[in-house]
Design brief:
The chain is of the alpha+beta class. Helices cover 23% and strands 29% of the residues.
Length: 153
């Protein structure tokens, strides 16, 4: 029991405890996990959440999260232990392997992860499903129903 409390205290101290893995989640599950998003782009199905230590940018496609970006708050870079914890939390029951071309790839090939750097000193972690990769950063629009008045035109 003492070991469990130590692990919990370390996880909370790292600031990664609130950022559980978010891949393959519905918007409803994401809101239950992170709280109300501070910004939503319904056209692109993008949800922005804030935790105490991260801004979490999630894009959903066909009703499930396919891309999750963890950007540290306060203009700092991710620490190695934070990267490892976030990868573990997004492992989908598999093991991350280093890949020279991408960054990391799950052994079961369900997801990839890579570090990125926006303008400024921060380094972020982007985790995406393998099927998201084919769309790249183009942010495809969710499927829309065609109104009956426009059918056959």
């Amino acid at each position: 029991m003492r070991i469990c409390w130590t692990i919990l205290a370390v996880g909370v101290g790292l600031g990664v405890a609130p950022c559980n893995g978010a891949l393959f989640k519905t918007p409803k599950q994401l809101i239950a996990r992170y709280g109300k998003p501070f910004k939503v782009d319904r056209r692109l199905s993008i949800y922005l959440f804030r935790t105490a230590t991260f801004t979490v940018n999630v894009q959903c496609i066909d009703g499930l999260s396919r891309s999750v970006t963890y950007l540290p708050r306060n203009y700092r870079s991710l620490r190695k232990d934070e990267i490892e914890a976030l990868l573990r939390q997004n492992s989908c029951g598999s093991i991350w392997k280093v890949d020279r071309n991408v960054g990391w790839i799950l052994e079961n090939r369900k997801a990839i992860a890579q570090l990125g750097q926006p303008p400024g000193p921060s380094v972020y972690l982007k985790v995406m499903t393998s099927d998201y990769e084919k769309w790249g950063d183009s942010h495809p629009r969710p499927k829309q129903k065609v109104p009956e008045s426009n059918r056959g035109k």
